[in-house]
Amino acid sequence: MGRKLVLPLLLEMDEKITYDFIDVEIPDFHPEFFGLWLKDVIDLEEKLLGSLSYIFCSDDYLLDMNKKFLKHDYYTDIITFNYNEGDSLSGDMFISFDRIKDNAMVLGVSSFDELCRVMVHGVLHLIGYNDKTDEEQHVMSLKENEMLKLRHSFT
């Protein structure tokens, strides 16, 4: 079974971010950093943090979910399930750490940078950004880059 980290941080009682590791390990994973950074992203977009769950898994695990829930028969880096209520962001984000490592190698970036990009990508989907069209992909990419720059405030 995986391990689970619950991060209440300095967040209010009804706000939380959880991290679950199903069949992968992520070296040097720092939940405090991710919690502070992602909360800053959400605040900047003038949304509220409800309950976010990040579930890190393998390619095979996420492929099974992609087939079952989205009827897609291909690997992906993230699947986001949106449970928002008004401006309060809540959702489950399943992330393949195998895809993170492979994409990082292809893109020539660190696994940490790619992990951050995918984690904030999920939050941006919950905020309302999409990436189905070329124009939406462009806007999403710009937003990802903008939010990635915020990380330096927390390192």
Outline:
The chain has 155 residues and is α/β, with parallel strands linked by helices. The protein is built from 5 helices and 5 strands; from the N terminus they run ββαβαββααα.
Question: Any chance you could write out the topology, listing elements then pairs?
Answer:
Blueprint: E1 3-7, E2 16-21, H1 31-44, E3 48-57, H2 59-70, E4 78-82, E5 88-96, H3 97-107, H4 111-127, H5 134-149
Parallel strand pairs: 2-3, 3-5
Antiparallel strand pairs: 1-2, 4-5
CATH architecture: 3-Layer(aba) Sandwich
How many H/I helices?
5
What spatial form do the alpha-carbon principal axes imply? Answer: globular
Structural class: alpha/beta
CATH fold label:
Collagenase (Catalytic Domain)
Tally of discrete structural domains: 1
Q: Determine the CATH superfamily.
A: Metalloproteases ("zincins"), catalytic domain
Report mean pLDDT, rounded to a whole number: 91
In helices, the fraction of residues equals: 40-55%
Distance between the termini: 31 Å
pLDDT below 50 for ≥5 consecutive residues: which ranges?
A: 5-14
CATH class: Alpha Beta
Number of E-state strands: 5
The main β sheet shows up as: 5 strands, mixed
Following the backbone from N to C, one meets helices and strands in this order, namely EEHEHEEHHH
Record the strand order, biggest sheet: 1-2-3-5-4
> What share of residues are in beta strands?
15-25%
What is the CA-based Rg, rounded?
15 Å
